[in-house]
Amino acid sequence: MSQFSRRQFLEQSLTTVAGLSVASKVVAAPSEKPKKASANERINVAVIGVHGRGMDHVRGYLDHPSANLVAICDVDENTIGGAMKAGEKAGKMLKYYSDIRQLLEDSSIDAVSIATPNHWHALAAIWAMQAGKDVYVEKPVSHNVHEGRVMVDASRKYSKICQTGTQIRSLKGSIDAIEYIHSGKIGTVTLARGLCYKRRKSIGLKSDTAVPKGVHYDIWQGPAPEHAFNPNRFHYEWHWNWDYGNGDLGNQGIHQMDVARWALNKHSLPKSVVTLGGRLGYVDDGNTPNTVVSVFDYGDSKLIFEVRGLETPPLNGTMVGNIVYGTEGYVVFTGYDSAIAFDNSHNKVQEFKGGGDHYGNFLQAVKSRKRSDLHADIEEGHLSSALCHLGNISYRLGKPQHSTTKVEGFEGDEAAMETYSRFQQHLAANNVDLNAVTFMVGPKLKIDTRHETFHNNREANQYLTREYRAPFVVPAKV
Questions:
Q1: Position 34 pLDDT exceeds 90
Q2: Partners of 335 in the beta sheet?
Q3: CB 3.0–4.6 Å: which of 220, 312, 314, 476 could bond 75 by disulfide?
Q4: In this structure, what DSSP letter does residue 30 have?
């Protein structure tokens, strides 16, 4: 396994390409062919990011017979206590790194599991694969569309296993429900609906402060623009800031977006996207929407996604789930590992339940060296994450509009207009004055599915990537 020095990391990031501010020098992949691990061999794993979701990674690998958790990495020294204590309880003295570049120099580490904020996902994964390591990366895999495609290319070029953290794909209940749909049991599928009805309260208004002791803030900012430290742009609240997160479309919503695309059996981007929504019901430091409707048109079918951060009742028995409609019935995904099939008379036909082991699936593929063993290969993660980014791009290009009976881009689409009507009712039920507030109505953007760009829309295409802060630069290509 090749070494990847800090100097090489810095060199990679110094040259810009075609005005994209992305790195040009790429370290060659390990020259030797990856070796298959024996069935009994344990994979040396490091977890990058151990605050919040990262602790599930720590526990998942500590408890797994195929894994040997050897190290953790986090830029906040104040958050590592839980992970270190969990390691001690399991009889392990975990190595600690505050800088990912130092961790990736450790040749004893075979694989990394990434649970950082979204703006670090792509760079951490690409650097790790260039350093000869297999990767498990949380959802969304990227902060923008371009990053996801580069991650796919890196996995292919360097022959690395790269699993996406959409764990629903490893749960038997959902796998069986998808097979039921794909086998034609509900007829021809015409619409997949994703729901993220998850209460999100205001984060309030907070002033910038000094960087807390023990926080390596320059590394935390990484590829993002430089800002003063603010608690509302740090632990978890970064989700609601465009520089680091992708709103709830790319937080909770990516799980249900992935299931919706999986149900439609689509392996490319849609032909078009249009989004409306806003940050409604309160005023705070967040700048991502808490209420969204996005419509993705694949030509022969559609995907409609709803985000609701205010109080709301379930739709057809589910709040954070999916509803997949066919000509002969529909399937409601009521949880990560459960679903129910109905006929068109709303009679229950079949139930699906059962869990699984997503970390174990990753480790299995690391041993076999077969991408086909993965339930959520990086390309699946890229395509579903890209849907979230596309929806957000339409929103960010939107114009303010008061509630009316017409929405440009939704007209002529019965399912979209029905969803918009419920959008209005939902806001009114939360005492949002529809005559006083405006929300953003984005343009209907046409997509070049082959090149993963927008047709003849320079402004929209600028959102497909970002300017990166050296030396934390995602390459234009690998």
A1: no
A2: 338
A3: 220
A4: P
Please report the sign of the dihedral spanned by the C-alpha atoms of residue 147, residue 152, residue 5, residue 28: negative
Give mean pLDDT, residues 321-350: 98
Q: How confident is the model at residue 36 (pLDDT cuts 50, 70, 90)?
A: low
Distance CA 202, CA 430 (A): 14
CA distances in angstroms from 141 to 108, 199, 255, 287, 423, listed in the order given: 25, 24, 12, 21, 29
State which H helix or E strand residue 317 sits in.
none
Q: Are strands 134-137 and 162-164 parallel, antiparallel or unpaired?
A: parallel
Cα→Cα distances 119→12, 136, 246, Å? 18, 16, 9
What is this structure's pTM? 0.92
Burial class (CB in 10 A: 0-12, 13-18, 19+), 75: buried
Residues 346, 319: Cα–Cα separation, whole Å = 18
What's the pLDDT tens digit per position in 352-399? 999 999 999 999 999 999 999 999 999 999 999 999 999 999 999 999
pLDDT in the model for residue 40: 64
Output the six-digit token pair for 422: 């419920």
- What tokens were used for 326? 């066919």
pLDDT score, position 5: 40
The Cα 259–Cα 452 span in angstroms is 21
d(CA 383, CA 267): 7
d(CA 337, CA 168): 7
